[in-house]
Amino acid sequence: MSKHHNAGGAQTGSQHGPAATTGNDEAAKAGSGEVSFGPREMAPQVSYPLWYRPHVSENLAGPGQPLAAIVTYVKNSRMVHLVVFDPRGVARPRVDVILRQPGDEAPEGQPYAEFPHFVTGEPQPTEAGNTSATV
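Above: the chain sequence. Below: its structure as tokens.
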């Protein structure tokens, strides 16, 4: 697995997904003009796949089923712009989408994006709301 580095030499992720950042990354980015991330947050990057959880009013997918999305712009570690694919594969833009970081509660009553469970290592929720032991 290869690691990618930004112009300052700081590790930004791997070919398989975003890297968790640490407090030391914050100091490395100070004054560089880069987006900063808090401790232990996953750093989204343009072209990363995410799951989009639409609000019921969007009428895009069945309850509990995420839609495929790709990051098109990163505002910060908790706000991104996306292209979201509906169940028929039609691309739909979404701006200023909340990005739920691993371990955060899902925002209530709002659409949001999250890293897929196979990237975060978090247990996959089941339809009954329980989490399974396998990823």
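Residues 78 and 99 are 4 Å apart (CA to CA).
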